[in-house]
């Protein structure tokens, strides 16, 4: 027994059904070897990786139609990795990453559950340099500006791993930490295109969620719908 309970749900993403194993609730916890503790993940935060959150679902739905041809893609803080699964199903060149010790296990299980090859995965801390990771044309993430300090750590990671003509797609459910992140990326030459987005069914405008699309290079002025 793994020490935590899971269930399997079927989600319609972009008109296609995906079977996803996730934790049954946020009360689940199991860290018998203290792997999460050593990674800096508290017991209160342990279960957060193992759910399909509204921001993660919106990112996956966006990736179901986004132009990914010829792009090397990195998903940061992937958790369950729904967006990476959608991209893998589309044949995209995607690498999923997280620092939770069970993220890779759940991602591999869900790939097999949907009859697709495993998604390439890297354990990635934003504050530790990783020269072997390389650079990416598109970096995506959902609810990754969770704490105030994440804006600086994530912008530093992008400085190391984004191509000169890179795109960055972040779904922010409205935690209020996107301002410092946007300013840091503008200093790196990115232009922001923002769309307000509902995070839950039935939510009325003004929506608290934001689809933050940053782009730099020759086509930085192009909007999201291109």
UniProtKB/TrEMBL annotation:
One of its GO terms (molecular function) is methyltransferase activity. InterPro entries: Methyltransf_16, SAM-dependent_MTases_sf. Keywords: Methyltransferase, Transferase. One of its GO terms (biological process) is methylation. It comes from the Bacteria. Transmembrane segments: none annotated. PANTHER family: HEPATOCELLULAR CARCINOMA-ASSOCIATED ANTIGEN (PTHR14614). This is Methyltransferase. It comes from Luteimonas salinilitoris.
